[in-house]
Amino acid sequence: MFTGNMASQSVVEPQEMEVDRRGESEESGDDETRRKSINGDMGPNQPPAANKEESPVDMDTIILDPEEEDVDLVHCRIGKIEGLEVLQKAKTLSLRQNLIKKIENLDSLSSLRELDLYDNQIRKLENLNKLTQLEQLDVSFNVLRKMEGLEQLTRLKKLFLLHNKIGTIANLSHFPCLEMLELGSNRIRVIENLDTLTSLQSLFLGTNKITKLQNMDSLHSLTVLSIQSNRITKMEGLQNLVSLRELYLSHNGIEVIEGLENNKKLTTLDIAANRVKKIENIGHLTELQEFWMNDNQIDNWSDLDELKNAKSLETVYLERNPLQKDPQYRRKIMLALPSVRQIDATFIRF
């Protein structure tokens, strides 16, 4: 399960909070942005930054330290990337929440390991070819339409392109080291072109327009897969993901739990807000710790037998199923699953 700073806040409306936060990775975006998003202070398509009507600042007014390795230029009203040549020792550069429209004038920063351009007005991935040491790139909350211009970044380990206008997964064949790919909140319809990402551990595709789970057979190292809020109707195409530990499929159109025969290492399974009528085909998931099945159509208490082999199961969400109408709802879950420590939003008191 994703941790992050919000993990302890499970008292007020945690179901809403938990499901929302699982749609995206927690590494892209600052703590304040994530807090606002989780608590509903931001709309799903609303950029988290300052007013875009601000006038850009003159870079000459910004003092840069040539000795600094971690350069933070967040929310400085920078309109154009320029004058950064003095930062020869910089390992990380954060330009998030500015007014930047174009990636440019970064060629001299050849030692850069991390580049953060989150929440600007960038329309194209370009002029990054000289940053061959780059390991992490975040261009989330911009207006990108294509995945391009990254061919020389062969050392990239983490790529965040959340909340753009990308329609196709493409041009990823040059990333043998890529471990995390965040493409949530785009316009992607097909899972494709992932065959070469054999080191990929986390894949986030939430809030797109994907209709089918497919083309993931080569992702043997994948441990986290999030495809929430799409148009999935069938659980399939997961047979080769033998290392998978966390699977998030909430807010789709799934009717049957199936296709998990080879995913025996799963510790978290989230199928909340679908159309499932029966808990089945998961009796072999003995390592399961969290099971999210709220907002479905479960009406038979005997279905909980499917979870009895999961001796480490601690969290179960079943609210807003027909089962919840039973006056003994919590008691029956506790009796059926004695290892559980949290039922829906509430921890069990002993």
Binned strand content: 5-15%
The helix/strand series, from N terminus to C terminus, equals HHEEEEEEEEEEEEHEE
Structural class: little secondary structure
User: Helix count, per DSSP?
Assistant: 3
How does this model look, in words?
- The chain has 350 residues and is mostly loops.
- It is built from 3 helices and 14 strands.
- A 14-stranded mixed sheet has the order 1-2-3-4-5-6-7-8-9-10-11-12-13-14, covered by helices on one side.
- α3 links the parallel β12 (315-317) and β13.
- The longest helix has 8 residues, at 14-21.
Keyword list:
350 residues; little secondary structure; disordered N terminus
Give a brief rundown of this model.
By secondary structure, the protein is low in regular secondary structure. The chain has three helices and 14 strands.
Give the topology.
Blueprint: H1 14-21, H2 31-38, E1 70-72, E2 92-94, E3 114-116, E4 136-138, E5 158-160, E6 180-182, E7 202-204, E8 224-226, E9 246-248, E10 268-270, E11 290-292, E12 315-317, H3 329-336, E13 342-343, E14 346-347
Parallel strand pairs: 1-2, 2-3, 3-4, 4-5, 5-6, 6-7, 7-8, 8-9, 9-10, 10-11, 11-12, 12-13
Antiparallel strand pairs: 13-14
